[in-house]
Amino acid sequence: MKKGFTLVEIMIVVAIIALLAAIAIPNLLRARLTANESAAQGTLRTLSTASETWAASHGGTYPANGTDLYTASPKYINWNYCGTPYQGYSFNCGMATTGYTVTAAPVNVGVTGNTTFLITTGGVLTP
Hints:
By secondary structure, the protein is α+β, with helices and mostly antiparallel strands. It has one domain. The protein contains two helices and five strands.
């Protein structure tokens, strides 16, 4: 008598694996989307804190652009987020010596994020 798996047994195992994948993959994608949105909010808060710290150190004058925060010595931020995609979001920094407005928009809506976030002078974050 030969021992082994029948075609029916193998098909049942493949069907179970496919069912588990169908359940797990959407949850994984949703978790990634949520993580990207949380990272975008955190990055906006980082840029806001750096800008407010800059203003406190420079007599109430805010940085003229995001590069000022990155190239200062010591640096106020470790990465120049302005104009570059980061964790599924693109950051548009509207900086002036009188204040700032930074927008975080998903690079691919529905895949990397669903919500566009905005932070303004004083650290007011709005979705």
